[in-house]
Amino acid sequence: MTPPDCDIAALRHPADVAIVGAGPVGLKTALYLADAGLGVLLLDSGGRDGAAELGRAEIADSSRHAPMDLATRRGFGGTSALWGGRAVPFDRQDFETRAFAPGAEWPLTAADVAPWYAAATDFLDCGPAIFEAPLPGLPDMPGLSATRLERWCARNDMGVVHGARVAKHPNIRVATGATAVKIDADAASGAVRGLRIVKDGQTVTVTAKAYVVAAGGVETARLLLASRDEAAPHLGGPALGRFYMGHLFGSIADIQFLRPGDDKAFTFFKDASGRYVRRRIALEAEVQRALDLTNMAAWPDLPELYDPAHQSAILSLAYLALTTPVIGPRLMSEAIRLRKIGPGGRVGAHLWNVIKGAPGAAWFAARFLSARYAKVRLPGFFVLNGAHRYALHFHAEHLPDAESRVGLSEVRDAVGMKRAAIDLRFGTSDAESIVATHDAMDARMQAAGYAKLIHAHAPDARAAAVLAQASDGFHQIGTARMGRDPATSVVDADARVHGVTNLFVAGSAVLPRSGQANPTLLAVALAGRLAKHLTEFVPQETWSAR
Fold first, then answer.
1. CATH among 3.30.450.40, 3.50.50.60, 3.30.465.10, 3.20.20.70 for 8-84+156-246+472-542
2. pTM above 0.85, yes or no
3. Which of the residues 73, 295, 367, 445 has an alpha carbon 20 to 30 A from that of 222?
């Protein structure tokens, strides 16, 4: 259910809190505040023809950053409409200061964040905040875990999940097709006086007691940078738009399980909540500290679908389905689909694989499609094989770099805003740590007789292989980073922009470290924490009449 849309006249009515962005983070913030009794105005640029065009950016290296139409979506529910639905918490070491990675200090600890995960998993509908699952028969592998869980949302689009609740809430007004173009801040008073919005070709100023920007890492930085003027020339400080991070992911080795049956532990399965989970492999924090390694998780994955040499009828059928117009884009998010189909394969060879294994492929297709469109959506598939050998997919931390950044270009969009200029960079330190982590995992797995890694490259070529795959833009982290020092961060521990009393940032933009985890769960958890702070920041006696 899509909430009713505010008209221009309604936008002029003051709110207690105005929120820019109706993705998961904006929705979580809005619902918490509204349930507490505050009047919320939820603004989103989507919902009109041409909304995607407004999100285009000038990208310095297209091999390093995804096109913005694949990475982001404007509209109610935001980018969750494109999201796979994976929920993973940050690890305790992600909040610790590390000598080999200076300039990435959290003003919060893991203990500060932990109480907010339960509400976040409830909001995302991915089951309880439990991220470990015992594995009977697992050999002792000191320093290595194979029991950590990633959780998957029953449905990925939070606009669908929470649309009816938002639409019926008496304390929430929603304005779609409403593009925020400037925050009117005043350095002298240290406050935001209003928020300029373009809707239906008209410009209107929205007023509120507090303002929250939850527009994603790129668009958040873009809006704050575009809001610098004579009244607030240094809004956001020198760190704004810098230290842009994502994750490094890909595969440089296969994993060969040495004991039959151990690979079954890495299939998707439902836990007691009825939500899907999957296990991941990771070094323990103590090992990462001892070896000065960045954080990384890994899991067995399918071979490249596009290469018919796998001789699997199921994988060839999956490849053909994903490359079929109309059908393919409906099976999974476009970004994941494009990664799965790769550079393309030989259709004839895939068809021959399917013909040879037709009965099994047909059974699998029927079962998968049924589960994919069930009320609790199967997030993907993992096909076991008799060789017990699989690609090992890694998902790793991206170290902060001040020169990896989001700025403003000289190209303007349809509402007159300068487009974002993106320069996402990956470094040799990122890659070398990933290679060393593979080595440390391999040593522990082999010592336990559990598994071994089979590398695709010679030792001196592995870091280059990691960097050859390095590309993101989906996880937009760090552009309005949280910290204690205004010279090196944009917001404080309460997510308030340094030097501005009533301007806050929510979402992955505030994370000073990327960790190994997808950022959505932590971003939603921090949104709950911010919303609680806002109920205390806005005095109750001043709350607006709805």
1. 3.50.50.60
2. yes
3. 295
* Cα dihedral across residues 265, 271, 276, 281: positive or negative: negative
**391 bridge partner residues:** 254, 301
Helix (H) or strand (E) holding 482: none
**Residues whose CB is less than 8 angstroms from the CB of residue 327 and which lie 6 or more positions away in sequence, other chains included:** 321
Identify the DSSP state of 412.
E
CA dihedral over 429, 431, 432, 436, signed as positive or negative:
positive
What is the tens place of the pLDDT at every residue in 317-336?
Answer: 877 878 888 777 767 667 77
Q: Pick from 149, 143, 394, 96: which is nearest to 284 by CA?
A: 143
Tell the residue number behind the tokens 């899991």, with chain if given.
299
Which DSSP symbol is given to 176? S
Whole-angstrom distance, CA of residue 272 vs CA of residue 288: 32
Tokens linked to 459: 């030792």
Strand order, beta sheet including 191-199: 178-186, 191-199, 202-206
SS (H, E, C) 372-384: HCCCCCCCCCCCC
Report the residue count for the chain. 546
Query: Per-domain residue ranges for the chain?
Result: 8-84+156-246+472-542
Helix or strand holding residue 328 (H, E):
helix 327-331
Amino acid at 377: R
Chain segment 341-393, per-residue pLDDT in tens:
777 767 887 777 778 877 776 777 677 767 777 889 888 888 888 889 999 99
φ/ψ (deg, to 5) at 384: -70, 150
Structure-token match 């067995």, residue found: 300
Query: Hey, which residues does 58 pair with through a beta bridge?
Result: 421
